Amino acid sequence: MSAIQRIVIIGAGTMGHGIAQVAAACGMKAALHDVDEAAIQKGLDAVARNLQKGIDRGKVTEEQRDATLANLSGAPDLAAAAAEAQLVVEAVPENLELKRKIFGHLAEVCGADTLLASNTSSLPVGKIAEGIAHPERVVGMHFFNPVHLMALIEVVKADTTSDDAVDRAVAAGRAMGKDPIVVRDAPGFASSRLGVVLGLEAIRMVEQQVASPEDIDKAMTLGYRHPMGPLRLTDLVGLDVRLAIAEHLHRELDSEAFRPPELMRRMVAEGKLGKKSGQGFYSW
Fold first, then answer.
1. DSSP assignment, residue 36?
2. Which of 46, 99, 119, 168 is the most exposed place for a label (fewest CB within 10 A)?
3. Where exactly are the structural domains of the chain?
4. Per the omega criterion (within 30 degrees of 0), is the bond before 146 cis?
């Protein structure tokens, strides 16, 4: 099993440019693609800012920054970049039809041995791979935000995914400095199923005026040693993103635990999406 040397990341948003950063930092040639060419440059600039913050905090050397940026490039032409890649990671919004369209295109332009991965946090990997050539090479590689700081990667094995694809995804994750877990392609996998239900219950507690968002979060950070409270994490991920995941899990699992609270729906309707909008349970 040869090491991944060239990787393409589709989607230059928060997750996409984060994945590109950790891949470039470990020595891979990482190409970042987005349908919006301005978004590609925005993603590359965000990586440069992250690295500078690392230097300012004494966590990254100037040499490491320069080496990472040298391995990183924009890829406006997806077909050309993907044709040379050994691994392509899709990190676009949680929309099944969009992901299926992307993977259909990748199956046409990539070699049969190219590992194709989705960063989906809840959608079924088997459905994403359905109908494409060589679905055995499609796997879930679910990274966590912020990618350059979070150690976990969740590798998701669909019924059609080969053991070789899982092994290659685990090896790639480890090469990027991550600690992999392997899970079956069940609704919500492991991390989203547990994390979302905790976040939804925290929102219900705010809705019922049990305590303030700050105190609910403090209960988990100080009482259970979570690195971040569930409401601050919801703000960081995005209330709209978590709402979509909750609706999906509510349908798939038929569990009231995943029914989105009305407060959550109202906040999303009002544009209070968390950090990216400047206001959620906290002001950013």
1. S
2. 46
3. 6-184, 192-276
4. yes
